[in-house]
Amino acid sequence: QPHSRPYMAFLEIQDGDENYTSSGFLVAEKFVLTAAHCRALGLYSKIAVILGAHDVTKQEPSQQRIRVRRQIPHPQYDRENLKNDIMLLQLEKPAKLNGFVKTIPLPEPGERVEPGTACSVAGWGRTIGASNVLQEVDVEVLEDDECLKYDYYDPATMLSARHPQKCRDTARGDSGGPLVCDGKAQGIVSRVSDPGITSGMYMRVSAFIDWIRNAKKLL
């Protein structure tokens, strides 16, 4: 439903001569969480966040477009295996919270999501082509044993989930979006799935709560 996920953030990323998009979610008036691999690396690169959006091709009255002042990727982020694939974005100005723009709660440190838990994930990623409107899919959290076949999987900082029918899941452009379980952002889309072959991989947000709090304090 349009605007039913008011914490969602659409990221416009200009990285040198390249332009691409990603997803994120609002966790405080001046902070958005996303994946570290969504980072813009060029000297003159920049990121803008659009909040309150459903159709990003339209100038909806609900939208707030705010530039990112600072990108704070996790200091142990590894681009090769996407370990610690989490990044905090500090906005240039606070978001105006209303019926279209809201924050989403985070879990407590070390909080675990039981396998089989029904969750949802949303983003503007590809369907057949890139999606202009926010899409959502329900997924179930998997047992760690089902994910350990991937060499890069670390159960302490990652979790995986997929649609029970293995044919609907995250796709390119959904990176950085939240895995929402019982109203909390329990995961961050890190590796999108290949439906029917692999499962979506997420950073386990509860493993990074202390880092998030300390990063916000430093700013």
UniProtKB/TrEMBL annotation:
<dbReference type="InterPro" id="IPR033116">
    <property type="entry name" value="TRYPSIN_SER"/>
</dbReference>
<keyword id="KW-1015">Disulfide bond</keyword>
<feature type="domain" description="Peptidase S1">
    <location>
        <begin position="1"/>
        <end position="217"/>
    </location>
</feature>
<dbReference type="GO" id="GO:0006508">
    <property type="term" value="P:proteolysis"/>
</dbReference>
<dbReference type="Pfam" id="PF00089">
    <property type="entry name" value="Trypsin"/>
</dbReference>
<protein>
    <recommendedName>
        <fullName>Peptidase S1 domain-containing protein</fullName>
    </recommendedName>
</protein>
<keyword id="KW-0645">Protease</keyword>
<keyword id="KW-0720">Serine protease</keyword>
<keyword id="KW-0378">Hydrolase</keyword>
<dbReference type="InterPro" id="IPR001254">
    <property type="entry name" value="Trypsin_dom"/>
</dbReference>
<dbReference type="InterPro" id="IPR018114">
    <property type="entry name" value="TRYPSIN_HIS"/>
</dbReference>
<dbReference type="GO" id="GO:0004252">
    <property type="term" value="F:serine-type endopeptidase activity"/>
</dbReference>
<dbReference type="InterPro" id="IPR001314">
    <property type="entry name" value="Peptidase_S1A"/>
</dbReference>
<keyword id="KW-0732">Signal</keyword>
<dbReference type="InterPro" id="IPR043504">
    <property type="entry name" value="Peptidase_S1_PA_chymotrypsin"/>
</dbReference>
<keyword id="KW-0865">Zymogen</keyword>
<dbReference type="InterPro" id="IPR009003">
    <property type="entry name" value="Peptidase_S1_PA"/>
</dbReference>
